UniProtKB/TrEMBL annotation:
Its EC number is 2.7.13.3. It catalyses: ATP + protein L-histidine = ADP + protein N-phospho-L-histidine. It comes from Maribacter hydrothermalis. Keywords: Kinase, Membrane, Phosphoprotein, Transferase, Transmembrane, Transmembrane helix. InterPro entries: HATPase_C_sf (IPR036890), HATPase_dom (IPR003594), His_kinase_dom (IPR005467), HisK_dim/P_dom (IPR003661), HisK_dim/P_sf (IPR036097), Sig_transdc_His_kin-like_C (IPR004358). The lineage of its organism: Bacteria, Pseudomonadati, Bacteroidota, Flavobacteriia, Flavobacteriales. This is histidine kinase. It comes from the Bacteria.
């Protein structure tokens, strides 16, 4: 994949994910705001309903007490009737409409104890007002000369009742004027407020704890819950006992200590579901990005591997080709010593190519769990000595050395002799390849409780910390600018790791650039 296209794809996917997370966050925040607005509206409606019901209950109490007082007084002291007349004449139909509205004032003339807590109660008089409405229609008859001589009644409607709306409003206003002089704790009780608030809030789907208080002109009164505390925020209020001028001296305040929890819980289900899907998308996105980067690295590593493998096979093939051409020379073929030397070269180069193929096939089988690894009791010191003999000639040819320090008093482990010999050979070969000068290698063994630790230490080129973390990965090789300066395919240490782990062991490395490397193998002792 083109590098620019790859970067563009990453940027677009990242922007899409950030946008998705932003939209989800905005939606959750907006939902909480909407819930809070809906909550505030519901609370305001509940408060208004409670204050209205309290006012209506107080007015009804006054009217009930008024009727009870009137019925208990007895005979009237005096009455007074006020009559209003309205006459209308229809010329076309010769009909006359007569409307009478009489207001009967009944004066009981007895002192009243109706209003409590008033010093001049003895001067208060109970009066009753009755409304009498009469509608009459007369037919006007005329003689031959056109003079009216008789009115004939054709319809009469009479209604006797109480006060009309205007008169009733006047009575209510009178009650309000008196009620303002009554202490608030005698006008409403805490039990009534609590019951009405709880009922109205539950009717609107708000079932949480609340605290309330009644304030008079900004000052607290005795009517409040035990834990109510006034605050500028998160307080809802509604005026109580509003008069006909819209003025009120009292406010009913309510607060909700667990309001935030209630609002969050109201959208918690959808929010958690949204969060879950967002996390799944983020994980899938991270996995996709990781796989893209990993595939890109693997592609580069495989390209590097093919280049190295081609280079590794090119040299032996060329050597074999040259040796065959030399043997075909009539002058050479008669020289038995040279023929044998060229045949030995062909054999060695063929063996080298075969070893490379076997190494690749061995890793492939190991990954597919097709490699048969049977384990027997072996002495790890003997395996180390045997592995050193495989590379001793190469070390001697380069003027180096391999020193052993086999100090562990116990060295028997359960292992496959052939594969573990290959493990030590690979580690020694790695130390030889990455020694720029004559290879100087030390091999140590030591006991750590029930384990034996094998340490292969060289004084070669060393590795950076980033390389140490990846050195056991398949196909991985440190990039040095020239990919052919050190021959290999990045398979040897991967094979080492898999074999050691199959033996329930551990393998790791320590290194510093320019100061050599040390590889450790930890195996359980028998």
């Amino acid at each position: 994949m083109n590098k620019k296209l790859f970067v563009l794809l990453i940027v677009l996917m990242s922007l899409s994910l950030i946008g998705l997370i932003f939209v989800q966050s905005f939606w959750i925040t907006k939902s909480i705001d909407n819930k809070e607005e809906q909550f505030s509206n519901s609370v305001s409606e509940a408060l208004n309903s409670v204050t209205n019901k309290i006012s209506e209950r107080e007015t009804k109490n006054y009217f009930d007490r008024y009727l009870d007082a009137k019925d208990s007084i007895g005979e009237l002291k005096g009455t007074q009737l006020t009559n209003f007349f309205f006459i209308d004449r229809d010329i076309n139909s010769n009909e006359i409409l007569l409307y009478e509205h009489g207001i009967l004032e009944e004066d009981y003339g007895i002192s009243s104890t109706f209003f409590d807590n008033i010093d001049d109660a003895d001067t208060t008089i109970i009066k009753n007002y009755t409304s009498k409405r009469t509608t009459s229609i007369f037919k006007e008859d005329f003689d031959l000369e056109g003079n009216s001589f008789r009115l004939t009644p054709i319809q009469r409607i009479e209604k006797i009742g109480g006060l009309n709306k205007m008169e009733k409003a006047a009575m209510e206003e009178m009650f309000m004027v008196h009620a303002k002089r009554v202490p608030i704790h005698k006008r409403v009780s805490k039990q009534e407020i609590e019951l009405l608030l709880q009922r109205e809030l539950e009717n609107r789907g708000i079932d949480i704890d609340f605290e309330y208080g009644v304030y008079s002109n900004g000052l607290p009164t005795k009517i409040k819950s035990d834990r109510f505390k006034y605050a500028e925020t998160n307080i809802y209020k509604s005026p109580m006992f509003v008069d006909y001028e819209g003025v009120s001296n009292f406010d009913l305040l309510i607060s909700f200590p667990k309001k935030k929890r209630f609002l969050v819980q109201s959208i918690l289900g959808l929010a958690l579901l949204s969060l879950l899907f967002t996390i799944i998308i983020v994980v899938a996105y991270a996995g996709a990005i990781y796989q893209l980067i990993r595939q890109k690295q693997i592609s580069e590593i495989k390209t590097d591997f093919i280049n190295n493998m081609t280079h590794e096979f090119k040299t032996p093939i060329a050597t074999i080709n040259l040796a065959v051409e030399a043997i075909k020379n009539p002058k050479i073929i008669v020289d038995q010593e040279k023929v044998l030397r060229y045949l030995q070269m062909i054999r060695e180069e063929n063996k080298r190519m075969h070893a490379q193929v076997e190494n690749v096939l061995r890793i492939s089988k190991l990954e597919k769990n097709q490699l048969d690894i049977s384990k027997d009791r072996v002495d790890i010191h003997d395996i180390i000595e045997d592995a050193i003999t495989h590379v001793q000639l190469i070390v001697d040819d380069r003027g180096g050395y391999i020193h052993t320090h086999l100090d562990s008093e116990r060295s028997e482990v359960l292992a496959n002799e052939m594969h573990f010999t290959n493990v030590i050979v690979n580690m020694l070969d790695n130390a030889i390849k990455y020694s720029n000068e004559a290879p100087k290698i030390d091999v140590f063994t030591e006991r750590a409780k029930n384990n034996i630790i094998i340490k292969v230490q060289d004084q070669g080129a060393g590795m950076s910390k980033g390389v140490v973390k990846k050195v056991f990965e398949k196909f991985y090789r440190e990039h040095t600018g020239d990919i052919h300066n050190v021959k290999g395919h990045g398979l040897g240490l991967s094979y080492v790791k898999k074999i050691v782990e199959d033996h329930q062991g551990e393998v790791y490395a320590e290194s510093e650039k320019g100061k050599g490397s040390t590889f450790y193998i930890k195996l359980p002792l028998i």
